[in-house]
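Worked Example 4.2. Consider the chain below.
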Amino acid sequence: MHGWNMTRRFHIDRLSEYVVTTQFEDIPRSVVEQGKVILLDTLGAIIRAASDRYSAGRMLLQFVKDLGGKKESTIIGPGYKTSAVNAALANGTMGYYCDIESHHAESITHVAAVLIPTVLALTESNSLGGKELLTSLVVGYDVETRVSTALGPSALYARGFHPSAVAGCFGATAAAGNLLRLSNDQQKMAFGLTGCQACGLMAWETDHTENSRPFQMGIAARNGITAALLAKKGFGGPPDIFDGRYGIFGAFTDNPQPEKLIEDLGKRFTISEATIKLYSCCAFLHPGADALLSILSKNNLDHADINEIHLHFPKSGAAVIDNNELKSHNAQYILPILAVNREVNIDDILHERRSDREIDRLSKNTHVVYDEELGPFPEKYSSVVVVGTRDGKRYSEKVEYAKGHPKNPVTRKELETKFRRLASGELSEKRIEDIIRKVGQIEDVSDISELVRLVCK
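Applying the procedure from the previous section yields the following C-alpha cells:
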C-alpha cells in the first residue's frame, strides 16, 4: 500500500477502533448524566408523537404489523413488538415528528431522533441494560456529529441532502456496532454498508403532510442497524467508505475535512454539546423565538400592539426559514403563533394550519432579513428580532444562543417539566414519574425492558 493510502486509511481505522473498544468506564460521569438527559428528552418526544391523533404513527404501526417478523423490539406508545430493524424505523420517525427533540447545532443534526430508537431496539432485542445503552448512545453521537462536520452540513444542504439523515446512518451504525460487539474489521464493513445506504433529500420541504421529514430519521436508524447486523454475519462492504475510492467525501461534498472524523475522539464527547428544544419547530427559529418573547415580556406588549416583525438571521441559512412550505420551518408562521399564544406546540405543526385572523395579519407582516453580519453559521444561529408597534415604537433584541443550548442551558426541573408536558395525555401521572426515576438510574438497570414497558400504554 502506498504511504498516501496508509495515511488516509487511518481515519476509518481510528474511528472503527473507537466504536468497538469504548466501554462505559471510559465515559466521564458528566457525559453519562448528559446521556440520561438526552434519553428522557427524546422519550418524551416519541411518546407524544406516537399518539393515535397523528397520521404518521398510525400508518407506521399498521405498516410494521403488515410486515410481520420476529417480535423482539417494542414500538413506543402502542407497545407492539416487531423486529429491531422495523422498531428503529417506526420509533426513529416518531423521534423527529414533533420537531421538539434535541439537536446538535454545529453539525446541524437531529442525533437523538436517530440514536435513541436505535439503541433502544438493540438493547431490548439483545437483553442488554442501561450501561450498554448509554455507552452506545455516546459513541453513536460522536460518530454522527463528526461525519456531518467532516462532510460539512452547508455542503450537504447545497447538494440537496439532509445532514441528519446522511450522517445519521453512520451514527446508528456506530451505536449498533458498539452494542453488537463487532470486531474492528466488521465495523469497517458496517460503515461501508451504511455508506451505501446513506440518503435523505431536502425534498421533504415540499411535503405538507410533514410525514417524509421525520421518516428520514427512521430510515437512518433502520439502515444503520441493518448495516451492523449484516456486517456481524460477515456480509462484505466497501473497506474504506471515508477515503477509499468512491467514498462519501466524493459523493456528498466539495469541501471534505476528513480530519474532523477523529478530531479529539475519546476526549471531546459531542453529546455534551446537544441543545434541548423548547418549541416544536425548526431549531433555526429558536433564538428568534426567545428574542420575540423577551421583547413582549419586557415591554408588556400584546400581539394586538404589533405592527410588524423582522427576524434577522445569518444570510447563508435564512432561506431555510423564510416562507418555507412547511409550517415547522416557516418564520412567517411560527413567530406570529408565538406572539399570539406565547408558545408553539406540536399540534401547531402537525395539524392543519390555523385559520386565525390575528395570526394571518401578523404572518403578512413578518419578514426574514438575510443578515451578512450574523453568524458564523452553522456554528451559531444568532438572531435579531425587531418588533414595530402600531404606535410607531421599535423594540430590538439579539439572542446568540437559544434557551437549551449548552451556553444557555435548561435546568433539570425545566427538562422534567417539558417531559411531563409531552407525555401527559398519553400516560398516567404515576407512569410519567416512574419513567423519570427509571431514566435517572438507568445505568443500574440490567435489562432495558424495564424501561420499555413503562413508555407503552
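Residues 193 and 237 are 5 Å apart (CA to CA). The domain at 283-399 is CATH 3.30.1330.120 (60s Ribosomal Protein L30; Chain: A;). Compare this with Example 4.1 before moving on.
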